[in-house]
Fold these 2 entries.
Entry 1:
Amino acid sequence: MGKAKLESYFNQKQSNGENLFVPYIMAGDGGLDVLNERILFLQNCGAAAIEIGIPFSDPVADGPTIQAAGLRALENGTTIANVLQVLQISKEERNVPIILMTYINPIYRYGIASFAQDCAEAGVDGVIVPDIPIEEEKFIADAFYESSLAFIRLAALTSKEDRLKEIAKRSEGFLYAVSVTGTTGAREAYVEEVRAYLEMLKSYSSVPVLAGFGVSTAEQAQTLSSYCDGVIVGSTIVDLFHRGDIEGIQQLIVDSIHPVTIRN
Amino acid sequence: MTTYTMPDEKGRYGNFGGRFVPELLMPALLELEAVYEEAKQDPAFRESLDYYLKQYIGRETPLYFAEHLTRKLAGPQIYLKREDLNHTGAHKINNTIGQALLTKRMGKRKVVAETGAGQHGVATATVCALLDLDCIVFMGEEDIRRQKLNVFRMELLGAEVRSVSQGSGTLKDAVNEALRYWVNNVEDTHYILGSVVGPHPFPQIVRDLQSVIGNETKQQIVEQTGSLPDAVIACVGGGSNAMGMFYPFVEEDDVKLYGVEAGGAGLETKQHAATLSSGSVGILHGTMTHLLQDDHGQIEEAFSISAGLDYPGVGPEHSHLNETKRVNYTSITDEEALEAFQILSKTEGIIPALESAHAVAYALKLAAEMSPQEKLVICLSGRGDKDVEQVKNTLEVN
């Protein structure tokens, strides 16, 4: 489990020639009862890992779709404790690696050491904390290390090369490459900028690099996957689940993971 | 005298502060920190700031001996630091003018800001009009409904006011939305944060810019009376007027400092904004500090009759000064603040902002424990014109 589990599961996918596809779901959106069912469904669609969000009242790194899902989940009474309980109970039913994503305050309130231990106990393999830059990570990194959890770092397009190098070097499990800024500008120039960024991260990282934020179609997933190891898809998956479009999710994942030759 | 050198190089005030933000914002915070350090050393920046403080904002503000209130209370000699006499009617503009000049220095043309009741939004829109910067202000939809006139003021000043419907539709949600906007537009936009909150270097920049309050007070009281005051009182929401007042006095061990939070309907209810008096430590809006939160780390809504104190967090430096006990933090209820609002109006002919009325209310209590030889300074952070209608309605109901 933990780092080792992510590594072997990713290796297996990649040796089949697949792009890595990590869907994001909000725990408790639609009720906690459906969480395990959704995990198994995504596993069967071919997900390389599943990123599970735990809601926070003030999610500054999320866009409107995930904010709304978080509010619904909070109204359903979702907490770290009851999400971990569901994951613990259903541990034996799944193979796919589980990554938890939440903000630092709920983790801090839960207790950092207990959080790490309880995650490991519940079969969680990695953790993403979007409001912890490398300057502030020490007080959680040690606890994650103790529990063999992969501490997945986030890189941003706006960061300078020396920072990106440091972030890439530290990341465990995979490197989460945030691949948008608001200033999209000319489409062509943007694609080239992202390509250079992802290729640079690849060169510095010893773990797979996955691109995320704003990926909504299989075509985008294919393009980004040709520059790195795969993608993370959040808002689109959350939205499709919310609308009950299960087939749409399956289609998106299947079309994203099998590389196609990119036509001009 | 005690030496005080906060924050440290990581933006920490003892156990509080820091920079808990998405990586996307780190380059902007590092740039801001570097530009600010450089500006502080540059006499031309200081000169330009001083020019606007004097000629545009109308500083220095008086330190007024409140003779009638002093006589009425028969306690210490009471002095009012008249921040209500600044252009736009409160201390907020001391910060916005400085940050607008920093925006220009960074070569940025756009400004984003959050506002609760609209005071910081108006102060930001004002300096953006003056310095020809584009200005977007995020404001909760609930606050927009309650503060229509301030929305119109900002628009009159050329700003665009964007309604925030996410979350509870109040100040904390406006901060979230301003942060999100900044994340997406960081290359050409500066975020003018309105209080000593948020990630480093904001708490430091806002404190330094507001320190003009305490620096003037120190000089004025010595000129008028020959010595420093025995006690200083300021109200604390995020805590910018208080930090600006306290900071120049922190090393003066003989000056007692009192921070007054909004006790709302009372600390025993959930309807208050007394973060230090009854909150717990956590991380919100990029900083580790005291918060109003539930057992699962979800942020709770703050309540106060005064919109400017209605924030579920507090500046990290206040958390530090609370921990070291250098400042005594206490709270005043809505009812006590309303009474002080009327007392100051009648005795001195000065209508205070409801925020500042919390500081006045605590002074009324503290005065009973002080002698006529002692001197007490109240930071009168803003004027009450904006609150008159609300106070009228509240008094009529009761």
Entry 2:
Amino acid sequence: MTEITPVLTANIEPGREPLDRDGYEQAGGYAAVRKALGEMSPDQLLELVKESNLRGRGGAGFPTGMKWGFVPQGPDSPTPKYLIANGDEMEPGTFKDRMLIHGDPHQLIEGIILSAYAVRAPVGYIFLRPEYQRGADLLRHAIAEAEAAGYIGKNILGSGFDFELHTHVSAGRYICGEETALMNALEGRRPNPRSRPPYPAISGLFGKPTIVQNIETLSCVPHIVNNGAKWFRRLGLGEDAGTKLYCVSGKVRRPGVYELPIGVTLRELVFEHCGGMRDGLEFKAAIPGGAATMLMSPEELDTRLDFTSLDKAKNRLGTAGVIVIDDRTCIVGISLNLQSFFARESCGWCTPCREGISWIVDVLRDLEEGRGEPGDAELLLREMKMIGPNAFCALAMGAEGPMVSALEKYPEEFETHISSGGCPYEHPPALPPNGSGEQGRNLTPRAAW
Amino acid sequence: MPKVTIDNKTYDVAEGRNLLEAILDNKLELPYFCWHPELGSVGSCRLCAVKQYRDEDDKQGRLVTSCMMPATDGARISIADPEAAEFRRSVIEWLMINHPHDCPVCDEGGECHLQDMTVMTGHAHRRYRGRKRTFTNQNLGPFIHHEMNRCIQCYRCVRFYREYAGGEDLGVFASKNHVYFGRFEEGALELPFAGNLVEVCPTGVFTDKTLHRHFTRKWDLQSAPSICTHCGLGCNTLPASRYGTLRRVTSRYNSEVNGYWLCDRGRFGYEYVNGNDRLLAPASRTDDGAPDDWETSTAAIAGILSEARANGTLAAVGSPRASLESNFVLREIVGAERFNPGLADEERRIVTRFLEFLESTSVRCASLRDANSVDVALVLGADVTSEAPLLDLAMTQACRNAGCRLTLTSLRRGRLSKFAADDLHLDPDQAARFGAAIVATLRGTPEPPEALRDSLPPGTHDRVRDTAAALSAARRPLVIAGTSARHRGVLEAAIQVAQALVSTSGGSKEPLVSLALPEPNTLGVTMLDAGEGPSLENLLSAIESGKVSTLIVCENDLFRRSGNPERLANALAKLETLIVLDQLETSTVEGADWTLPVAAAAESSGTFVSSEGRAQRYFQVKAAAGEARTSWRVLRDLLVDSQQEGSEAALEWTATHHVTAALAAAHSSLRQVVEIAPPGDFRLLQQRIPRLSIRSSGRNAMPDMTDVRQHVQPPEDTDTPFAFSMEGYQGRGPTSLLPRYWSPGWNSSEAVNRFQIEVGGPLHGGDPGLRLIEPGDIRTGSDGAGLQTVSVAAVPTGKLEAVLMLCGISEVFGSEETSRRAPAVAESMPPAYMLLNPDTAVSLGVVEDGRYDLRFGIDEEMRELSLTVRIDETLPIHVAGLPAGYPETAWWQAPCWATVEITGQVEQREPEKEQP
Amino acid sequence: MLTPEERVELDEMRSHYPTVRAASVSVLKWLQKHRGYLSDESMRDAADYLGLPVAELDGLATFYNLLFRQPVGERVICLCDSISCWMCGSDRIRRHIENRLAIRMGETSADGRFTLVPVVCLGNCDHAPSMIVGDELFHDLTPEKVDQILGLEDTGSHGGDHD
Ligand SMILES: Cc1cc2nc3c(=O)[nH]c(=O)nc-3n(C[C@H](O)[C@H](O)[C@H](O)COP(=O)(O)O)c2cc1C
Ligand code: SF4
Ligand code: FES
């Protein structure tokens, strides 16, 4: 079993209040800010992050340093620039940002300050989903503490860098996590995504250069500054860098958040760290990176869960929200649930997503309720392949992944739904006991956040 | 010029186009919904997908949304690619999931862009088995019908309404496939351009409620190109009729004038033509019960005319809402010195001065297209929104897209105020002084003369300075004035500002002016008259003194022109014979000895000169109501029968173009009007152009609802090259003769893209109409150093708080003469009122919505009237606003000082708001 | 109409946003928190206060799932119906709540105490099924636990689950 020293979760202890500034500083916190603002130019910091091979943890896995490099700089470049921490986290199966926000707010803030410095953004926003209100309170308190210590404000630590940081608590809707929709939401407009180009790094919030970064991505930055790019790169088991917060849910014995070197295999994650399947259940499938990624079959258990390996497997690491599905759970039912999610969370802007996905839902419901007709599986496959890549934003592509992979990898499930006139499974699936009591390195606290 | 390869053929494309535009510019077929040339690309419908290839070797390609991709040089795309075609078909299939398929009962059917695109993509078989989502519709007022289930979520409506036109009360609600377009709550749409939703919406969500009441499919509508008569801008229209009534008006594209749009007054004001108060047969007061017919009336009137002429007691009043042709023939009957053009005297002075100015300056009279892109604008004493509605829409574009800096001076806050850098609420006198102060500043007189300054509210001086500075720095400044304030000083100031901009810029600027005119031919009739005719005042005196005893009035209600109805009524009563030609009952018609029914614009052909100075021809759409005849024909018969000297030539006038030619020959300023459209005997391949579409279901028996045999002959038509049938030339004629936009596969109004040189640009063959007055090369012009300000007559004596300046408030719906007789417009009109500042209301002891008996004292005269009080905190405290163009308040001539007394209260309604 | 006290609080909130429009959602949320839901009147108050067209604000209010344009019960139950919770039995919890309160998803109980709405993944999938009641998160739900949380069992204690 792969062992690591926790990095992002070092200060997080289940059930305990997060460290305040003093505690965080005693644990080595804000050293990175001191170091970077004291010794490094923004460009050097940017180079360091580029070198670290940090890739975005919000779903797309875009190289963070490269994105920062797109921000126009220089005396004639537009000002101000903005840095947005994306804490919308609504991707089903994903619960890592919740932990970072509630478990170590100062780490996030430090990461934000550093990233803002690198792109020379004087203003930052932390965008939070409404259910993370307590997180917002914790963050506001931590921001005030950071301000009091001079880590936020004018001329931070004498570096000449000014930075202010605000929180915004949203009012729902998954689409708000899409970075351009998020900017519309922040501006008080309907959160429909914007067309690209222009890319946010060129023209984003209020028409100014804007960097949107996932909470986990930002939380990595202080550690890169403290320990160096090479250290960070070496943390990974495969080609990718860093540790990764894997969120495991579903029918495993010990669901939870696990900080592991990026690149553990699905098998190791499920059967070692999570203690395997719950009693009497067999592994049937897993979705590796939140609702918007493709189903993995038992044959794929040895695939490494990192960007590179999953890209090769025509899959995506996404948010690393691993949803484990057992043999008593219906793949059509899973698909219906997922597609209902995407249909409901569609912003309603473009035709394929708005109309197409709800058609998919309709057909899936027919299958589940015994109204399926021969040809439905083909119809689902064809329509979904047309909807996914041709919608306005990536939401529909997210819907395509699990649907197409379900049809391709579990065709017999769809066939039996048609031939046997409905769902052969027990609904809702019976729930064997959770294997609680065992002590794993499950990092999820149980406090009611 | 970029070259784009489309399905292996290479095409030239204009700079800066996107792929969809490039495709449409080259008249290739590609379906689309959400893109619109004026509203831009948003990429939401995804229908316009094509395959794009990286280079020649790329055989795979990828689907792209063509409206979102620039048409760069060397781009390679395929429309025909099977995957692209299938995707487009799927987009329609997806949209059809929730579309109700209610085409048979949908008013859009037959001119539905969704139908066209469905056919174009080939989607024909539905596979969806589920239920459709349904919405509740809203009552959106008298103009627009709402049917949300048909929505395909292209967002065009809100993009037009909010982003383009600046409306606020139409929104998009909810998300996913519940997205809903409507109002926060039921109620009439506030935007005076809401009618464009009917054309902007690609399906039947927003349809024309007035059409609905007498519905006809587009393919059965009979139409011809026409010009809107409800203000002076000359927007191009397509009125359409069936079975003898007008059914609707849609916009006729003209890139120089109205573009794709119309205002709601122009679109929905047409129903007066069908009204119950139409005059249908000639009538004489001395009616002995025997019906009058044209022959006997003409003979009788001709006799009266020749006698009166012999006595020297004949005079005539023309009209700014009658054609050049009618005015010309009328003028021929009585002679130039006895022809009054039919404007109120002050208005005539204003328009005459404006024309003089235009002829002697390098300042250009702005077209609507010009106004779209100015960088600084100054509006002096006009309410653009109600006086020239589409100019408001153009200014909205200037402010939103061209960053126009706008200074407004009008009586109160209006629709454009939210865009204005300076929004001043001034009476017309003050507006004129404000303009004069700007002139002084522009000319470098650092401190404007005391006299100018003192009468302006405190703080105005800064606004003067800022506006003048902006104007000086502008590249294309525009100065707008109006006539409905009836104040010469306002126009004078506007002219001087424009002139000062020319003379101080050394020719580096292209200043523009615009004068909002309330009627379609104000400029035309003024050019015809050329200031030669008597004033109304003189005419009245002449009647009073018996020098004039026979008067012909053509299409004019004199009570709208005169400030003294009793005097006018007495004078008219004194006439031996009053002959009135008109369409509708009016106060003038009431007193007529002879009433001659004449055709409305949609029932006749002729020429108008718009406020831009653009001469435009309109053509008969339908047969005239009852026995009504085109007024120039009635007048020609009178001219010939009364054997006026030199009337022999008129014997030859059997078609409109004969008269047009005669007037062009007689008036050098109008000599070009013959060129604006082909004459009535114009034929293509010896054929007429059908007024009915090739898709018409009526075939042979169009005018008859009950019988398939044709036993009603279509009216004889020498005036136009159009046929009252579907037979005739099926190709494309000149743009001035386009009776509809239709192209195979394009049955909706989107078909216009097949007629444009490039989509959104001018029409193939040029936009119709011709500007008669182009700026000269006069770079300096007179400096008019001693600017005169003209002020409103002295303040009358009386209780001070009750002395108020009466000013006319223009209403989009209600102030214009004919549209207010259309039921839908009438429903939208506010009832007659007196508008006051809240402070003034307090000092008068009146409350909002209360109805009061009022006594107005002007000079020595007293008027009594009951009006409802309305409150507007932006109105100056010394002003009482009365609605312009309302018969109830037609007795006064704005602006003037008056004592205002409350003599009683008619009915006390609970005031809705607490009074301060 | 907003009271002067309400205005003071809203002014404070507005000052955190660079534009008035950007403050819209927060203003709406604030009004909802204090008035239970966003009535037409509250919408007009917000529009008045922000100087934005009410149609535009309603475009926001109706977009977000946690802004309520209809009256809701004293406690709003947001039951997660996303994949992990569904797999672990959220559907059974839904039916249980529906039966106990005699309402369907989206409805308010007759006594006005509860409204049940679905919500997307609460980021609590390792303790599925989960729900939020009011501001509190509850997890590892069973029918018995739900009764307890909602105070529906005869002797039941109230409040959240803080184990
Ligand atoms: C529908 C949709 C929802 C998304 N939601 C989130 C989210 O909740 N949190 C997040 O960090 N990224 C989300 N993303 C990805 C963001 O658009 C963006 O790529 C990300 O915040 C960039 O940060 P990163 O580079 O650090 O991953 C979402 C994307 C889509 C298409
Ligand atoms: S794919 Fe289209 S409808 Fe769906 S969320 Fe993105 S923009 Fe909105
Ligand atoms: S027209 Fe191109 S996406 Fe709608």
